[in-house]
């Protein structure tokens, strides 16, 4: 169990190194992205953010990015993170790049659950924000995942934003994979348990898992957090349960 978490931390560090060293252009017949997905269209998920430490995020407000606690180092002044938004192609001349000013890591975060953090930006990004779930109403169904992370387990980071859909996995089924490593009140699982093949992967951490609400608007229900490898049968992806933390996130955002 500690081993799993150690692997998770290692993979994030590896993702940073990969992001710095080998941002791969993807060919037109690209292999499955995110792991098992396809390329997102320009403007399809305008709230998506790539963070320079090799994580994803979503615009919570024009000047605040919601990401994972394990993507950041603690709380306080931080001008070292660059957020890139507004383009599916990270190398697009029209991509908007904004520096951070502050980071707020979830209070009480110790590597188990509570995997959320906020990053304040030096200026607002003129793109739509992603609404966050405030109740459990949307915590089941089919979810969309997106990111610039690895398209295969151990593979390189992506230049183009990739997307896929994954079904909800119950806590009971998820516990069969992860036992007491899963914190069911704070984590949601998703994936094709029997087949594998589609999942978030290294470098997607911090990005949103989302679906449509009853009004047809995208709503964020999860934050990419961890899992055993990527897209393996029997091992769904684990996501921070946003609805559990909605009020804590709102309170924290108000202090930034
Ligand atoms: C990571 O290290 C990571 N398959 C993200 C998601 C998953 C595993 C690892 C889930 O960023």
Automatic annotation (TrEMBL):
Q: Which SUPFAM superfamilies match?
A: Trypsin-like serine proteases
All copies of domain Peptidase S1, residue ranges: 34-254
InterPro entries xrefs: Peptidase_S1_PA, Peptidase_S1_PA_chymotrypsin, Peptidase_S1A, Trypsin_dom, TRYPSIN_HIS, TRYPSIN_SER
- Whether Acyltransferase counts among this entry's keywords is no
Set out the biological process GO terms recorded for this chain's protein: proteolysis
Under the heading SMART domains, the entry gives: Tryp_SPc
**Which keywords belong to this entry?**
Disulfide bond, Hydrolase, Protease, Serine protease, Signal
Alphabetically, the GO molecular function entries are:
peptidase activity
Q: Would you tell me the protein name for this molecule?
A: Serine protease
């Amino acid at each position: 169990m500690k081993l799993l978490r150690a692997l998770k931390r290692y993979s994030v560090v590896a993702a940073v190194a990969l992001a710095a060293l080998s941002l791969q252009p993807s060919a037109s017949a690209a292999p499955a992205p995110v792991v098992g997905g396809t390329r997102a269209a320009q403007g399809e998920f305008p709230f998506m953010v790539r963070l320079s430490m090799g994580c994803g995020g979503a615009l919570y407000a024009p000047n605040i990015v919601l990401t994972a606690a394990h993507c950041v180092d603690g709380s306080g002044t931080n001008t070292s993170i660059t957020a890139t938004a507004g383009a599916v192609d990270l190398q697009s001349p029209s991509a908007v790049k904004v520096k951070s000013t502050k980071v707020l890591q979830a209070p009480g975060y110790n590597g188990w659950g509570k995997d959320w953090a906020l990053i304040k930006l030096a200026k607002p990004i003129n793109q739509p924000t992603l609404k966050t779930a405030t109740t459990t109403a949307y915590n089941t169904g089919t979810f969309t995942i997106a990111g610039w992370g690895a398209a295969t387990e151990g593979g390189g980071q992506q230049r183009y934003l990739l997307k896929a859909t994954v079904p909800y996995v119950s806590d009971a089924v998820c516990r069969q994979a992860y036992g007491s490593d899963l914190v069911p009140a704070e984590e949601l699982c998703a994936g094709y348990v029997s087949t594998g093949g589609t999942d978030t992967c290294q470098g997607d951490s911090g990005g949103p898992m989302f679906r449509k609400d009853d009004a047809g608007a995208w709503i964020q229900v999860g934050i990419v957090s961890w899992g055993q490898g990527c897209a393996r049968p029997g091992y769904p992806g684990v996501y921070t349960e946003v609805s559990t933390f909605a009020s804590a996130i709102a309170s924290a955002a108000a202090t930034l």
